[in-house]
Amino acid sequence: MSGDQQPKICIGFDFDAQSVWAGSFGLSTPTALSRGEFGPRTAMPRILELLEREGVSATFFTPGHTIDTWPEVCRRILADGHELGHHGYMHESPVALDEPAERAVIEKGLEAMDRNLGHRPTGYRSPAFDLSANSTRLLLEYGFVYDSSMMADDFTPYWARTGDVLHMDRAFEFGREIELVEVPCSWSLDDFPQFELVVTPPVVMAGMNEPDKVRRMWLADLEFMVERVPGGVFPLTLHPQSIGRGARIKVLEDVIARGKELGARFCTYHEAATTWRASAPPPQGAR
């Protein structure tokens, strides 16, 4: 099977640690922050051991705050051959930020990586899977190769756009494609809403699903992709503090096992983006 036609599985971890509770949910109590601490303290050794045992490379989208707080864990991620991607600084969504503020967050995350790790990321994922009108243009300007925050496809990368305009009284206005690969994501392939209980109005997330339900969902999508989407990319989004707790990690073990049975190649998001880019038509102008 050729590389382009081989199914690919991208295991992406949003390594948020404490930042998601403070930055996204506005919680700073000891119990809330301890949920984030579980990720680097307890889950990450389990996850990194599993990936090493299975010979699987993964991508860790990591806020700058996590890097500043847990630099030794982030150094191990790189030492083990995994990819480290940008994920804001304090898990702040860019949606409400003006352009100078969004630039500042991008730069602060980059500075944390450089200061602690001497590393420059090629990929970005927005906290909470959302972007501002400026985001894709800024990512291209800062030299990113790919983004993984949008959902216009399920298993096939595509070129990101800038300059889209939503008109309420006439057709949607498509902006121009740019040389930024979008590796799409999906809430249905994200462990956080499946497993976590969050009650901080207006955010209410009921989660707490049994692992078997999540396993069935993910394997069904994986099998669909392998059967129907030649060369597809299966973009799993996991959080160490969620997937690494108790029996949940067995779901990841089963996804890896089934992926190997199906002949899938495990690769980083960077590898998936550059593989797609190598044979993709060039970006088109405004449609």
UniProtKB/TrEMBL annotation:
One MF term in the entry's GO annotations: hydrolase activity, acting on carbon-nitrogen (but not peptide) bonds
CDD domains, sorted: CE4_HpPgdA_like
GO BP: any one term: carbohydrate metabolic process
Record-linked Gene3D superfamilies: Glycoside hydrolase/deacetylase
Domain NodB homology: 30-267
Listed InterPro entries: Glyco_hydro/deAcase_b/a-brl (IPR011330), NODB_dom (IPR002509), PgdA-like (IPR037950)
Membrane-crossing segments per the record: none
PANTHER family for the chain: POLYSACCHARIDE DEACETYLASE FAMILY PROTEIN (AFU_ORTHOLOGUE AFUA_6G05030)
Protein name: Polysaccharide deacetylase
